[in-house]
Write a structure and sequence with these properties.
The complex is a heterodimer of chains A (about 110) and B (about 110).
Chain A: E1 3-5, E2 10-14, E3 19-21, E4 24-26, E5 32-38, E6 44-50, E7 56-58, E8 64-68, E9 73-78, E10 87-94, E11 102-104, E12 108-113
Chain B: E1 4-7, E2 10-13, E3 19-25, E4 31-38, E5 42-51, E6 54-57, E7 65-67, E8 73-78, E9 87-94, E10 102-103, E11 107-111
Parallel strand pairs in B: 2-11
Antiparallel strand pairs in B: 1-3, 3-8, 4-5, 4-9, 5-6, 7-8, 9-10, 9-11
Classes of the chains: A mainly beta (about 110), B mainly beta (about 110).
Amino acid sequence: AQSVTQPDARVTVSEGASLQLRCKYSYFGTPYLFWYVQYPRQGLQLLLKYYPGDPVVQGVNGFEAEFSKSNSSFHLRKASVHWSDWAVYFCAVSMGTGGYKVVFGSGTRLLVSP
Amino acid sequence: EAAVTQSPRSKVAVTGGKVTLSCHQTNNHDYMYWYRQDTGHGLRLIHYSYVADSTEKGDIPDGYKASRPSQENFSLILELASLSQTAVYFCASSEGESSDYTFGSGTRLLVI
């Protein structure tokens, strides 16, 4: 069964600094991968998604992620963090065709310091 | 604008009582889902549906029932609410089984 691991429960970054949030997945096949963001007291919103193709995908608000089959990873990056990026970020994996489930990681809380 | 709307936004329920959480989507999506979110556990799938009048069990269905009377509406029912069901509940919809999800704003349920 597929699974997703976000090894960092909490990450603190200074405003203007670069960011990387880690995501490792476990799945024998070609995964579909997603990053979602949850702002305080809101539902999850899609940041970006990877369907098989270009390994680097661009998302909203300057976020991007890179798929690595060899490392089973899908890390999220941003060149310069803004205070409004303070949120919880979830990585998710889908089995692609033939499966009903999207499995979510436990989330990484991003704190932005001034 | 396409959306997923949940009601109520929050609810306090008494142990042993019946609770119904409602979800309405205007996305014209076939798939709908109910998740619960607990601190430190991310999202866990309770029930889902891919067609009206049919529901499927997710990973943690015990203590919950679901109802999909139409493509647009999907309800989660707690027949006998328990303290352990205190959580935030999210409804979501998707076009296909591997498509990205559109989430509602969540329902905060407190069982006392």
